[in-house]
Write a structure and sequence with these properties.
This protein is an all-alpha fold and about 200 residues long. It contains 6 helices and no strands. The radius of gyration is 19 Å and the shape is elongated. The termini are far apart.
C-alpha cells in the first residue's frame, strides 16, 4: 500500500465502459463471502428449529439501536454511490465528500454495534442463540472494518488526486464491497431483529 501511495501508476487504471480485473476479482471474493454468510444464517435457522425451550435468552431483540443503525448503514451506501458518480463525471470534490461521509457513517454504525454488544444481557457462551448472534454479527463487523480500511485508502488516494473521470477503477471496486457489507447487514438484521416478531 505504501508503494501505491507514493507511485500513482501502481494503481490500476481500468477503462471507461469496461470492468477491471480487480472488479471481477472483488465479485469473486464477494461470492465466497456471501456463501459464508448463507451457511451461517442457515445454521441459525436450523438450530432455532431444534431448540426444545425458549430460543431467545431473555425477550425478543429490541429494535432501539439496530433499526436506526440499519438506516445509517443504508445511508452510507447512498453516499458511496453518490461519490462514485461524481468521479465518473470528473468531480473529485464530490468523490472526497462522498467517501468521507461514507467513512464517518460506517464508523458510527460500528460504534453503535459495539455499544449494543456491550449492553446485551447475555454473553457469547450463555446459549446457542447467543453464540450464533455474536458469531454472525461479529463476522459482519469484521467485514465492516475491512470496508472502512478500503474506504480510508480510497479517501487518501482521492485526496492525493489519483482518480479522475478516466481513472476510477479502484473506487468502483472498493464501493461494490461496501454495498455488499450493507446487503449482508440487511440479511443479518432481518434474521435477528425482524423474523422473531413474525412468529
Amino acid at each position: 500500500m505504501s508503494e501505491a501511495l507514493i507511485h500513482p501508476e501502481n494503481l490500476p487504471i481500468g477503462s471507461v465502459g469496461r470492468k477491471s480485473s480487480g472488479w471481477w476479482g472483488m465479485l469473486a471474493l464477494i461470492a465466497t463471502e456471501a456463501a459464508l454468510f448463507a451457511y451461517l444464517l442457515f445454521s441459525y435457522f436450523y438450530l432455532s428449529t431444534q431448540a426444545h425451550h425458549n430460543w431467545f435468552p431473555t425477550q425478543k431483540p429490541a429494535l432501539t439501536l439496530a433499526l436506526p443503525n440499519t438506516f445509517i448503514l443504508l445511508a452510507s451506501s447512498f453516499t458511496a454511490w453518490w461519490g462514485e458518480k461524481g468521479i465518473r463525471r470528473g468531480d473529485r470534490q464530490r468523490l472526497l465528500t462522498g467517501l468521507g461521509l461514507t467513512f464517518v457513517l460506517g464508523c458510527i454504525f460500528a460504534g453503535i454495534q459495539l455499544w449494543e454488544w456491550h449492553t446485551k444481557s447475555f454473553s457469547f457462551t450463555d446459549s446457542v442463540y447467543a453464540s450464533m448472534y455474536y458469531t454472525i454479527t461479529g463476522f459482519h463487523m469484521l467485514h465492516v472494518f475491512v470496508g472502512l480500511l478500503i474506504l480510508l485508502c480510497l479517501l487518501v488516494w482521492s485526496w492525493l488526486g489519483k482518480f479522475d473521470s478516466q481513472r476510477f477503477s479502484p473506487v468502483s471496486t472498493g464501493i461494490v464491497y461496501w454495498h455488499f457489507v450493507d446487503i449482508v447487514w440487511l440479511a443479518v438484521f432481518s434474521t435477528f431483529y425482524i423474523f422473531p416478531y413474525l412468529d
